[in-house]
Amino acid sequence: MSGIDPKTTSLITEHLTFTPLEVVDDIINAANESVYGTVQQLENYLRSSGPSALGYVAEGSIAETDEDGKELFDDVAMNEIQQGLHMLEMLMESKVDKAYDQFEVYVLRNIFSVPPDIRDWMRLRHHDNINLIKATSINPEKDVTPESLAQTRRQLQETTALHRFLKADVSRNDKVLRSLRNLLNPTSKDDSPLAFLLDPNSTANDIKSFGEDTEFAAVQVKELHRVVAELKKQAIDVFGDNGESDAMDLDAPVPGGLREKQWNRALYVEKMSRRHLEKARGLSLTDDGALKNGGDLLGIKKSEVEVSTLEEVLGRTPQGRN
């Protein structure tokens, strides 16, 4: 609009964060809404009054009514009412436009205005710590270099990439929030995996039985500890403190335990094996079970290979069942 200084408008817009014209437009729109509301209320009143009250029914005649007994307007009367309301609305709009055009000029020139003689000396709050003198002394040909332009370009690219990343992150977070809302507010409680949280009473019996099962399991664990302790004592009696279970261990057994029986059985197997080798095989053995005379078999000298073969055969011979 002529007569309004652009510098003043820019300063006021920067201070208020909105243009002065937006304020004027909002006021004019509010006035127009009031006009439209007035016309609508008038139309409702005319329709509710009926044709008889408005003089559309001649004397001695009866107007048409609906099922509820309410009088109905004919087409001629309705068209006349619509035309009258439309003309009234146009008249009020023209008056509002004329009046508020003057209001707009007055507001922009006298309210949203800064005198030119003090405008250049004004400093807004966000202008603090800004050296305007140094900013106006920049020489683009000297101060702007290819390196500074490249750095600015890189900063712009990084900022753009960060912006895209943040938008994608916001989108992912929105999906997660929608999923959580669907879990907490399902269409049906049966469809929700968190239904037991939404209706705790439905799982009261299950929780009670779970407590009983837990108590029973705790009792059984104590019983298992007791049985394991007894088995450990028996294992010590059978295998000794080191827990070894070698049946051919010839250490002194614990009297009265299972190990003593294994000891006696091992001696018996050793005795019967020696007897079998001496009588059935004809071997002459020492007290340690080795061949006498370095490998004599019934007084006949055998080679080392034959003795090794015989030992392999004896090694494959079953020693009895355990």
UniProtKB/TrEMBL annotation:
One GO term of the biological process aspect: mitotic sister chromatid segregation
Gene Ontology CC: one annotated term: MIS12/MIND type complex
Superkingdom of the source species: Eukaryota
Membrane-spanning segments: none
Entry keyword annotation includes Cell division: yes
InterPro entries attached to this UniProt entry: Centromere_Mis12
Subcellular location as annotated: Chromosome, Centromere, Kinetochore
Alphabetical UniProt keywords: Cell cycle, Cell division, Centromere, Chromosome, Coiled coil, Kinetochore, Mitosis
PANTHER family noted in UniProt: PROTEIN MIS12 HOMOLOG
Family: Belongs to the mis12 family.
Protein name listed in UniProt: Mis12 domain-containing protein
Species for this entry: Orbilia oligospora
Organism placement in taxonomy: Eukaryota, Fungi, Dikarya, Ascomycota, Pezizomycotina
